[in-house]
Amino acid sequence: MPLILLATFVTAFISGVFGMAGGLILMGVLALVLPVASAMVVHGVIQSVSNGWRAVLHYKWIDWRILGIYLLGSASAAALLVFIAFELDKAWLFIVLGLVPGVIWLPKTLIHFDAARPVHAALCGFIVTGLNTVAGVSGPLLDVFFADTERDRRCIVATKAATQVIAHAVKIGYYILPALAANALPNAQWLLVAAPLAILGTTLGARFLAMMSDIQFRQWTKFIVSAIGLVYIVRGLLLLAG
């Protein structure tokens, strides 16, 4: 429990700055100490609080048009997931988590999305919600849709936060019954401590974001999530090797 609470604060701060990466780290920590289904639910709850508060802090920067179209794609993914029962093995979960950040390095000539385009926003909602449910995180993929969007960094962080609240709600709904059946969820009281820590970390991160330039924001995002991804791939391969 202390490890989860510490990770909640630290990752909320990181996400408060970059709008991503924190969830990727937190999912890795939870996967170390909890069964996959339980880790997904706990991650979804913590990240819903963190992203929800970040969206509140920057609410005036949210692009509601993008968010509305994203919601249509997300709803389509949720409807499809109703008919699919799927859970990754823990080793493969780490490998998938590690591979996700790789999408931000793909050449723009090969893959180029812009969340400001309606079709791309809907596709973002469908793919990001699906990946978030299967792998637990989708921040790096979400960033692919926002990396070249002509928006202020605060608009990007705020809108991404709002979309992630939706994605995490779908994830919680998908895994809650298996997690309850396994009886491996922490006691409900942990949320009374975790929620304020997530809010505090997010608030401090938002202040740090205000001091960064758009160029610094984009550069640091790529390298941080890539380093985390490499660690997770190694962890997953070690688990496969026994």
Walk me through what this model shows.
- The chain has one domain.
- The chain is built from ten helices and no strands.
- The longest helix is centred in the last third of the chain and has 30 residues, at 153-182.
- With 242 residues, the chain is mainly α.
Features of the shown structure:
76% helix, 10 helices, single chain, mainly alpha, 242 residues, 0% strand
Map the helices and strands.
Layout: H1 2-18, H2 22-33, H3 36-57, H4 64-81, H5 90-99, H6 118-135, H7 139-146, H8 153-182, H9 190-210, H10 214-240
Helix pairs in contact: 1-2, 1-3, 1-9, 2-3, 2-5, 3-8, 3-9, 4-6, 4-8, 5-10, 6-7, 6-8
Largest sheet: none
Strand content: under 5%
Would you identify the regions where 5 or more consecutive residues have pLDDT less than 50?
A: none
Helix and strand run: HHHHHHHHHH
Number of domains: 1
Q: How many DSSP E strands?
A: 0
Distance between the termini: 26 Å
CA radius of gyration is: 17 Å
Average pLDDT for all residues? 85
Assign a percent range to the helix content: over 70%
What is the compact description of this entry?
With 242 residues, the protein is mostly helical. It is 76% helix and 0% strand.
